[in-house]
Amino acid sequence: MNSNKQQHRVLTLLYLAPTALILLVFIIIPIIYTLYLSFFDWNLIAPTKNFVGWRNYLTIFTDPVNQKVLLNTLGYIGLLLVLNFVIPYVISIIVQFFIHKMQGVYKIIFFIPSLFSLVVGAMVFAWIMNPVSGPIALFLRQIGFTLPNWTNSGGLAIVMLCLITNWKVFGYNFVLLLTGLGSIPQNLIDAAQVDHIPKWRLIWDVVLPLNKSMAFYVLILTIVQGLQYVFTPINVITQGGPYYGSSNVLYHTYLNAFVLYKTGNASALAILTFVIFLILLFLEIKFVEGRDADAPI
Amino acid sequence: MKITTHFRKTAFLVAFLAALGGLLGVGGASQVQAASKVVNISYWHVNAQTQGGAAVDDLVKNFNKTHPNIQVSAKYNPNMYQGLMQNLQSAQASNKVPDIVQVGWAYTNYFGSNFKYLTPTAAQSKFDKNSHFITKNFTKRTLSFAKDSNGKLVGLPYSLSTPILYYNKTMLDKYGIKASDLATWEGVSGAAKKIKAASGNYGLYIQEPGDTWAQQAVLLSNGAKIIQKGKAAFDSKKGQAAYQLYQDMVVKDKTALHTPWAQGMDAFVNGKVAIAYTTVAQASHVKSSVNFDVQAITSPHFKGQKAVVPVGGSMLAITAQKTAQQKAAWVFEKYMYDNSSLVTWSKGTGYLPPTSSALKDPTFKSYVNDNPMLKPAIAQIDTAVPWTSFPKNGLDAEQTMIDARDKILAGSSVKSTLKAAQEKINEQQ
């Protein structure tokens, strides 16, 4: 009995080992090393690293550029949540419960853009939306409007870059949410219909709670992956400009690390981002998942 | 001369072993063996297929065919000199550096103070005694482009470019503007106003990539200095006046377009901007994309001043660490400076060749005659100055200048922005 238990334990460890090793080498050690680097002033190749204590962290909060970038990041998160989570959710509910024809066609049409490279998408959008010579600008000019020069305004640039990301991510999130909605037991919905419960109440009280785990997954994906996806159009179109107006924490980390080679600043930013994501996850789990912690995620 | 201890040790060891081999009477055999051994070297460049990558492939292929003892493999690095420098950083961090690399001018000091390399002067005296390859092929001015802030030659100039003023002749003719009106920045500003008023189109676009090369040319052409005695010096009356004219065009008159580089050039080739101030390396792209008569003239200057432009492009630097690879890299480098190689390279990339003999080469001359937009760029080389490279924290300094440009073009006060930027750079020098 005892040896059986021990064998069981060894086997468990053995099965976990490959994943644990990958996690250790590619995630945990790099995070620890990043934390270590965040206390130094170093350029990746100089033979000596200068220890600077908390200075890199202090500059994050005192440097106006970093403050601007942090604010932009919040803006991105808000916008991405609406574009890549709320809207696909609403549309997937409409497709699942209000439209009965051509569901498969919608799925395919919405999904197609997520097969394309984001670099290609960014370049095509930059051309189409060129505020001076792009087709949309020319069309608007014909009918007496002008397209605002969005590359010169941080706010508009953020909206445009989020829209490009939206083009890429929308279909994927839509399909995920739709699959979640589709797996809700039909008998529950039938029962509600027999009881003549209005559709909006059915959705609010039955569908949304039952689809919570999928929605939760897409929500986290939207924030974490969205900020990473948006990196590509930033890099292709604005490079964070005008004057860091469209930069976010991830792009700014990249700029510090691989353009200016300020490894310390970049590491401090990366650690901060890591902590923010941790807090977000914690809040999510506590408040969204809190009531029924045993529910499968 | 940058010869590492490691290299010295290796050289000593090789010499010692050779002497030993000679003593034991096996020298002949080992030499034969060495001669038949193929040395592999890697060459890092930034030329995508659309930017002369095919020319690089041709040159390397031909070299490998004619030099059986050396095999060069070329590696393309995306995102121009910045991308190459990023990859070089990682390569150095993992101790796997390439043997010969293209280094953009803006990185001269950064490369010089952070990487191990063999200077061309050292390579020449080591592998080609009594040769005057460097002084024979390059003028003093051209060599000055590749020197760091201590005056040390870091690499050999390979591709040169200067900013030129492209203009949409069809549009200018329509509004009665002559090319001679564009000789001064004041004239350009006046022409832009005329065009805006008559057609609603923008008059001017000055390139805005991730550097301030073109903006520096504008300041220099008002007699301002970017750097003086190792310190930033652009916050002068002349520097402010130059930026003020540029800002007025963008912010007040709205006659100049302020947008990232790719969008700006799109607007020009689509006929929505009359004049574009950008590198000569764009000439073939511009020529093949427009459906109007496009021409180019030399950089404008401010009234009463001379046009001064910083040179763009890159140098070739030897990063090989072992003698055999260094020697092979030097042989390859010399091959790249053959007239025929340089002309192939120039045609493929749109850059200007760095040697005076290639500039005079009949094939190159006939190429220029077919592409007259290169002429103003060539004319400027004799008066061009090195790209500003600050001795310390140069990458940070360039970013500070980019930030200042973006702030000014968004409407911030020229005076206070330049002052703050200059102070920030000088704190780190």
From TrEMBL, chain A:
GO BP: any one term: transmembrane transport
GO cellular-component terms in the record?
Answer: plasma membrane
Q: How does it sit in the membrane?
A: Multi-pass membrane protein
| Principal location | membrane
Q: Which UniProt keywords apply?
A: Cell membrane, Membrane, Transmembrane, Transmembrane helix, Transport
SUPFAM superfamilies from the UniProt entry: MetI-like (SSF161098)
Q: Name one Pfam family in it.
A: BPD_transp_1
Where is it located?
Cell membrane
* Membrane-spanning parts: 12-36, 74-99, 108-129, 149-167, 214-231, 267-283
Q: Which residues form the signal peptide?
A: none
Top-rank taxon: Bacteria
Q: List, for all copies, the residue spans of the domain called ABC transmembrane type-1.
A: 70-284
Q: What family is it from? A: Belongs to the binding-protein-dependent transport system permease family.
Under what name is this protein listed? ABC transporter integral membrane protein
The source organism is Agrilactobacillus composti DSM 18527 = JCM 14202
